[in-house]
Amino acid sequence: MMTYSAQRTISASPSDVWQILTDSSKYVEWDPNVVRLEGQIALGQKIKIFTQMSPDRAFPVEVTELTPNQRMVWTGGMPLGLFKGVRTFSLEEGQEGNTHFQMEEVFSGPLLPIMRRVMPDLTDAFESFANGLKQRAESL
After folding, report:
1. How many Å apart are CA 51 and CA 95, to the nearest integer?
2. Which residues contact 106 (CB under 8 A, 6 or more apart)?
3. HEC assignment per residue over 18-38
4. Which CATH class is domain 2-139?
5. pLDDT per residue as tens digits for the range 3-47
6. Entry pTM
């Protein structure tokens, strides 16, 4: 397995952060990595993410879990589980109305050793996502 993660304490309520995370039409306004996001973020829906790293290639994922104001999971990859990515967004209410946000993606599958060699390091992308989300939520 290969894992990337980022976390932030955000001075906003979980419901405010959740509203930002589930509004696909606004990702380009706060996530510096996203060129475009197609589809609606809802349970069972498929969305396509176009990033700065590969603006002409979509990364299709399915929203496989959705617990409002708490947890969302996006799952994507190759057929037959040859390569799989599972991205989990978690929100936890903290003290004084803050939100502890965590995003983690776990990559797995038999083709992981090959994919690991061609995949870019996603550490900076995860950090900028978390920073963008924090700035957006705290500016509302």
Report:
1. 34
2. 1, 2, 3, 85, 86, 88
3. HHHHCCHHHHHHHCCCEEEEE
4. alpha beta
5. 999 999 999 999 999 999 999 999 999 999 999 999 999 999 999
6. 0.95
